[in-house]
Write a structure and sequence with these properties.
Layout (H helix, E strand, L loop, with lengths): L1 H27 L6 E4 L2 E5 L8 E2 L1 H5 L2 H4 L3 E11 L6 E5 L4 E5 L16 E13 L1 H11 L10 E14 L1
Parallel strand pairs: 3-4, 6-8
Antiparallel strand pairs: 1-2, 2-8, 4-5, 4-7, 5-6, 7-8
Length: 167
């Protein structure tokens, strides 16, 4: 009986170390900025499909239902960047904006100067209603004043697999 008790204790200790090790891996995943320098820009995440039709933000916003749930490639100006983690950016073309979320699978340098930068984003497009608190959180992360936000917000988003910042 004592042997079974010791085996159980050893098993629990090994399980605890395994669980903590996985937790640490999950915490650090995506925290390193890994960029791939290309002739036309800097790529974060997966390659952009070379032969994909490049859309504008206006193209997508004109038919949100048609593009919802589909993989898109969109090009536009970077207007915001997550300053706390580098995990999202906002792309615009003057007609509206789409938030490109990396879901922490990759990140961009949060200190990056996005002034005048254009980006190409690939990922799955969707429309989601977010709470006032979530909208204020995004505002805080981009350095904007969260007190200007009131009520739930409609968020046009791309769950990005790759973001290329053009030269």
């Amino acid at each position: 009986m004592n042997n079974l008790k010791y085996i159980l204790i050893v098993f629990l200790i090994l399980f605890a170390f395994t669980a903590f090790g996985q937790n640490d891996d999950m915490k650090t995943e995506g925290e390193k900025v890994v960029a791939k320098e290309l002739a036309d820009g800097t790529l974060y995440g997966a390659d952009i499909t070379a032969d994909a039709k490049i859309l504008t933000v206006g193209d997508i916003l004109a038919d949100t239902t048609g593009f919802s749930g589909k993989t898109v490639v969109v090009q536009g100006d970077m207007s915001e960047l997550c300053r706390s983690g580098g995990c999202w950016t906002v792309i615009t073309d003057g007609t509206g904006y789409i938030r490109a979320l990396t879901m922490h699978k990759f990140i961009m340098p949060k200190e990056m100067d996005i002034t005048g930068k254009k980006a190409v984003v690939e990922g799955v497009f969707s429309v989601k209603e977010i709470t006032e608190d979530q909208a204020k959180h995004f505002a805080e992360e981009s350095g904007k004043d969260p007190s200007t936000i009131s009520g739930p917000q409609k968020m046009y988003r791309i769950l990005a697999t790759g973001i290329k910042i053009l030269k």
